[in-house]
Amino acid sequence: MSQNRFNISEEQLTQLAERYDTPLFVYDVDQIRQNARAFVETFKQYDLDFQVAYASKAFSSIAMLQVAKQEDMSLDVVSEGELHTAIEAGYPMQRVHVHGNNKSRTVLEMAVENQVGCIVIDNFFEMALLEDVLQEKGQTIDALIRITPGIEAHTHDYILTGQEDSKFGFDLLSGQAEQALNHLMNHESIHLQGVHSHIGSQIFETTGFEMAVEKVFDALKLWYDRYQFEARVVNLGGGFGIQYTKDDDPLPLSQYVHTLVSAVKSSASNHELKIPEIWIEPGRSIVGEAAVTIYEVGAIKEIPNVRKYVSVNGGMTDNIRPALYDAEYEATILNKSDQPIEETVAIAGQSCETGDMLIWDLDVPTIETGDLLVVYSTGAYGYAMASHYNRFPKAAVVFVENGNDQLVIKRETVQDLTRFDMSYE
Ligand SMILES: Cc1ncc(COP(=O)(O)O)c(C=O)c1O
Ligand SMILES: N[C@@H](CCCC[NH3+])C(=O)O
């Protein structure tokens, strides 16, 4: 179960909850580093060029990006805010890749001014905007084109991205990708380095990735034969699955690298193409299992013969995933792990939404108001997708490494919530 994969003791988590209050995200930095190294070190076993870019959408903060930088990762950003965080964290801009299906002129200007390593071009509108920005600034930039390979990976519909009917990227089947290539080959200011493909997120089997590699190389072969285009870089995205509950059985992270490298090698050799630099973009698998959220139990309501609702001081405002994707989590009560299971309860969030539930059926020892509930595997897309719904301030985030803890995102106050409000009298 996920709690067995988390290394910070219940005793320390209890102390942290007392010191920093709840709700509280606690990240195990050692685990983040191990995950990053699992990818980087596995690539190093091969004689090829690679980049492992942390997909900062999973959890972006200055401290987090400093850790990613220390671990020699490149960085995927999607917005002005994520790029700004990278700048504040002192990220080497050459290692930053800019994504997004609706990049604003401002983010493109920021990217060009800071000379980021690469822009992943998503559509024709953006291409024209980028050309304009480059012309205005008299600069050039490296780019990849994002292609949708027409792969339907096994995951929730909302986190699928590689299928033909997608808002992301240039479609291979309809010829849009080839049209983009034609426009960008030998372009004056946009220097096309290769292609990008990301098939979706929380994917456990490797078949989808292997199929995507095949599709990408089929296209590259065609483009080589027709235009002598050779990709220097092939970015295969992220999406590697993690364990949320005991029903999830993820592969070791190294396995994804082995699979991708061997798929690239065999596709390249089948098509007599050079082996390009391989880039990947893991987000969830770097931080997901490396954090927990600690809540305090408040109201408890039992409906006889129906259900016992146990409300905690957080919910969809710090973890929208159950409401958005029916995502499932495991949790325990701190300091009661030695007590026998007595009941099955539903853990409810505190927002005014019936769907604001964190866990529908959780087996626990007798649960009481004031207990501390720890929910596992909340490190990815938790704080990152947090909202101010009902004007609940955002939680605090603490990093723990070698037994030492450090606050890395302060808890918001209610005063923070009205900071931008203007009076209307
Ligand atoms: C383009 C792109 N790269 C990388 C990621 C990171 O995915 P994950 O967090 O599943 O590794 C995503 C999210 O699905 C994405 O859209
Ligand atoms: N936010 C989603 C995944 C989308 C990843 C970005 N394309 C999740 O929590 O699972």
Structure annotation, total helices = 12
**Topology order in helix (H) and strand (E) letters:** HEHEHEHEHEHEEHEHEHEHEEHEEEEEEH
Please mark out the parts with pLDDT under 50 across 5 or more consecutive residues, or reply none: none
Instruction: Give the CATH H-level superfamily of the largest domain.
Output: Alanine racemase
Count of individual beta strands: 18
Structural class: alpha/beta
Number of domains: 2
Kindly provide the radius of gyration, computed on alpha-carbon positions and rounded to a whole number of angstroms: 23 Å
What does the main sheet amount to?
Answer: 9 strands, mixed
CATH architecture of the largest domain: Alpha-Beta Barrel
Query: Average pLDDT, to the nearest integer?
Result: 95
Provide the helix percentage: 25-40%
* CATH fold assignment of the largest domain: TIM Barrel
Bound molecules: pyridoxal-5'-phosphate, lysine
Q: What is the 3D shape? A: globular
Task: List its salient traits.
single chain, 425 residues, alpha/beta, TIM Barrel, Lyase, Ornithine Decarboxylase, Chain A, domain 1, 2 domains, nine-stranded mixed β-sheet, eight-stranded parallel beta barrel, 23% strand, binds pyridoxal-5'-phosphate
Describe the fold and architecture.
By secondary structure, the chain is of the alpha/beta class. The protein folds into 2 domains: 99-281, Alanine racemase (TIM Barrel, Alpha-Beta Barrel); 289-417, Beta Barrel (Lyase, Ornithine Decarboxylase, Chain A, domain 1), CATH 2.40.37. Helix content is 30%, strand content 23%. The protein has 12 helices and 18 strands. The strands form 2 sheets. Strands 1, 11, 12, 13, 14, 15, 16, 17 and 18 form a 9-stranded mixed beta sheet that branches. An 8-stranded parallel barrel has the order 2-3-4-5-6-8-9-10, surrounded by 5 helices. Helix 3 (62-70) links the parallel strand 2 and strand 3 (74-77). It is globular, with a radius of gyration of 23 Å. Bound molecules: pyridoxal-5'-phosphate (PLP) and lysine. Lysine binds at residues 57, 159, 201-202, 321, 381.
